Amino acid sequence: MNKYLQDLIKLSKYDGVISMFEPKIENEKAKLSTFVEVAESIKSKINETYAQIDDVKSKRTKNNIHLAELKSKLDDISRKNNEVTNEKELKALQLEEEIAKEQISFANEEIERLDSIAVAKEEELKELQSRLTEEEESIKEIQIAVDNAIEEINQERNVVSQQRAELLEEFDKKILTFYQKIRRWAKDSAVVPVKNQACYGCFMKINDKTYSEVIKSEEIINCPHCGRILYKEDESTEEA
């Protein structure tokens, strides 16, 4: 096989392998991000629950203030009862007292309802905080595993990058420029095998003359359809 073609095949395979490292790293990071997203969601719910508890407490305080005002009003009505001079004033005070007592009853019911909500929210908060603790522990464990996996991937990438660099040290510059021009649009499929007399880049069948030249491997042959560099794999490799 033509030496330049051999070098192109090696270079293309190195580039293909190197291109796969970044998706592998992103895949590892995605494992962690799933748990982080869950933890952030729980934190958001915790903050929301705190806000709801504060709102309930605020409403309860307002009801307590209102309840104190109503009780003071009843005391005032009771005092006025001793000063009533006619039936009309008495009925007015009785009506006012009845309304105040109804409002007191409602305020007490509202305070009881708010207390019940506060208890439920406090329980919900404890559960969320417990879940967050579990998620954060899981994140720590996964972070270690992900960091180790990424370190291994980077080590593998460094080895391949070094092999690629060594190959380029003796690479023909014109051939490299030629390859790089094709790779700009073909990406990692700039150099592809021919199988069943078809280019494995565009999957178009090539004519007998071109196929014969590819089999000989004496020169660098481009696909007549897409322009990719073609080569014929060994029969054992092709079968595998």
From TrEMBL:
Superkingdom of the organism of origin: Bacteria
Coiled-coil regions listed in the entry: 67-170
Domain C4-type zinc ribbon: residue ranges: 198-230
Keyword tags: Coiled coil
Protein name: Uncharacterized protein
CT398-like coiled coil hairpin domain residues: 28-184
Lineage per the UniProt record: Bacteria, Pseudomonadati, Campylobacterota, Epsilonproteobacteria, Campylobacterales
